Amino acid sequence: MRLTCHFAQGLRQRLSAALLVCGLLFVQGLAPSFASEALAPAVAAAHPKVSVASFNIQFLGMFQRRDNAALADMLAPFDLVFVQELVAPPYSGKFPDGTNFRPDPEAKAFFDAMAAHGFKYVLSDEDTGTGPQQHVNSSATEWFVAFYHPGKVAPAPDLFTGFLAADRYDNPDYERVPYAFGFRAGSEDLDFISVHLQPGGSAAETKRRAHEISTIASWISARTGAERDYVILGDMNIEDCTELTAVMPAGYASLNATCLPTNTNPNGPKPYDHVMRSVTDTSSELPYGLRVMSLVDAMRPHWDTAKGAYPGDPYKHDAFRQLYSDHNPVAFEIVIDGSDDD
Q: Which of 26, 96, 193, 290 is deepest in the core (most CB within 10 A)?
C-alpha cells in the first residue's frame, strides 16, 4: 500500500527557473552558491529539461528552530525534490498495519512551506530504521519523501514505488531500507531509489555501506521487464573517491564522479551525496554532471539580522544544522528528448 498525498495547487510562487550558465546552476541571486561537475556535450541543449534536487535535511521534523520557509524558497525552482532524514509524518494517516500516524508539527511546517510553492508529494507508507523500533517519531527511524511540481513531473503508477525489502526495521542488508519512487517526466520514465546509508569511516562501517550498495544493485538486476532506468540517489555517506570506486556497481557511474564535498561543515568536507545511474541505460536521460549548492550561501539572504550574527558567518555547525541542515542539496537534470529507450 502506498500513501500518496496531494496538496491543493495554489500560486506556485516559484523563483525564476534554474539556468545553466557556464556549467553552473544559477538560482535567482545565488549564482556563486554552486560547484559543479563538468557537463556533457551540448548535444542535449535543444531538449527540454526537468530539474531535480536531492537533499538530506538532518532530522527533519525534530528542530523547532528550523527555517522551513527559507528552505522551501530555495527548493522552489526545482521540478522534483527528494528528501532524506524525515523523522516523523506531517499529517494524519495509517501505517500498513492499520495503526494511526502521530502527525508531527515540525514535519508539518516543512510540508506546508513546500505546499505554498505548489508542490505535491509522495511519502513512503511507513518509516525504516537501523534497530527494532518502528513507528516512532524520532531519529531512530526515517521516512522517505519526494516533492514534485504537477505539470512538470508526475508519479508513474506503472513503475515500482515502495521499499526494496519487506522488513523495514533492523534489516540485515540495510541500515534504512531504501525507497523507490517511480516518476514520469514527458517522454521519460525513471525509478529513483532514495537512500540513506551507513555513516562512519571505520572499516566495519565502510564494509556495511558497500554491502548496502551491492544489495541495491542486485535488487535492480533482479527486476524483470523492459524498464531499466533506475537511479540511486541520496546520502550515501561515502568518505572519498577511493571508496566510491570500490563500491560502484558494475555498469554504473556517479554524477559526482570527482567527489565534490556535499556536507556543510568546512572543517571536514566529505563527498557524502551521490547520484548513480546506469551508463548503458540512463546516460541519455541524465547526461549532465552533479551540481552542489552551498547551503550557507543560499540561506544568508534569508537571515533576519535582528536575531544576531548569521550562524554561517563564521560557520557554527550545531546552530546551522538545526536551522537548516548539515548537508548541501545536490542537483541534476533529466533531459526530455521525446523518446524513451525502455
A: 290
